[in-house]
Write a structure and sequence with these properties.
The chain is 46% helix and 13% strand. It has 290 residues and is an alpha/beta fold. It has a single domain (4-223), classed as Aldolase class I (TIM Barrel, Alpha-Beta Barrel), CATH 3.20.20.70. Helix 4 (112-125) links the parallel strand 4 and strand 5 (130-134). The longest helix has 17 residues, at 225-241. The protein starts with a strand and ends with a helix. The mean pLDDT is 97. It comes from Candidatus Competibacter denitrificans Run_A_D11.
Length: 290
């Protein structure tokens, strides 16, 4: 259903932390002009943790209106409370999103049965295509492959964003890739993941280098290892540089360097430390982004 380079788009903010919808419009056009295959609104990179419910849905609705069905829009609707995730998923469906991306419930460390019931309840309650999202490095919660296999039998659970290891992605492709699509949630392993059967990447790097990430995805999905490697070699330092501090701190600074957004970011996140400016700028230059 969804393929290629799918950007986990930043949420533009003014210096005072207010949402900047004019900058959001510029970002959406930038991505469509540069081949981005889908936009994920208000995911982790979109600072979902610092937006209130109404802001969250307003950003989703605005992205849907700006995109005008030219590419898919996927709303980040995960929460560590099942009722909150249900609310966000329902509201995002009503706002016109094509699908929802639901991170595992963070902090409270549910069991595998709890994870199964969480996702089962949301999928059965809200009839929109849903993508699971496993990122144990941020959530202290790991959605195991055997649980993903159980969830793959639910018709509107159509994919998983896996942000752990290449080996886990390859295992998921082997175990349930015939029933749901597997997406890389880590730009650094995305090339090899797609060459191994993943259907795309939900990308941080695509915020700053959308054309290159789209071209990498096209090559990898076609099985062209040489072309994939050549593109990925140019992007390798950017993949790393965008995590010199917690995401989305470096990527918001990087997109600001492209002149697309102002420098706003919300506490407890802070602007990129000046010591990292040369690192991120050099990676942008190597990737051909500036």
């Amino acid at each position: 259903m969804f393929r290629g380079s799918m950007v986990a788009i930043v949420t533009p903010m003014r210096a005072d932390g207010g949402l900047d919808f004019a900058a959001l419009a510029r970002l959406v056009e930038f991505h469509i002009e540069n081949g981005t295959d889908a936009i994920i609104a208000v995911g982790t990179t979109g600072e979902s943790a610092t937006l209130d419910f109404e802001e969250h849905i307003r950003v989703v609705r605005q992205v849907v209106e700006l995109v005008k069905r030219r590419i898919p829009v996927i709303a980040g609707t995960g929460a560590n409370s099942t009722s909150e995730a249900l609310h966000l998923t329902q509201r995002s469906m009503e706002a016109g999103a094509d699908a929802c991306l639901l991170v595992t419930p963070y902090y409270n460390k549910p069991t595998q049965e709890g994870l199964f019931r969480h996702y089962q309840m949301i999928a059965k309650t809200v009839p929109i295509p849903q993508i699971l999202y496993n990122v144990p490095g941020r959530t202290a919660c790991d959605l195991k492959p055997e649980t993903v296999e159980r969830l793959a039998d639910i018709p509107n659970i159509i994919g998983i964003k896996e942000a752990s290891t290449l080996e886990r992605i390859q295992e998921l492709v082997q175990r349930c890739g015939d029933r749901l699509d597997v997406f890389s949630g880590d730009d650094g392993i995305a090339a090899e993941a797609m060459l191994s059967g993943a259907k795309g990447v939900i990308s941080v790097t695509a915020n700053a280098a959308p054309r290159a990430m789209h071209e990498l995805s096209v090559a990898a999905l076609a099985g062209d290892r040489a072309q994939t490697q050549a593109i990925n070699d140019r992007l390798a330092e950017l993949h790393k540089a965008l995590f010199v501090e917690s995401n989305p701190i470096p990527v918001k600074w990087a997109v600001g360097q492209l002149g697309l957004i102002p420098p706003g970011i919300r506490l407890p996140l802070t602007p990129l430390s000046e010591v990292f400016y040369p690192t991120v700028r050099a990676a942008l230059q190597q990737a051909g982004a500036i």
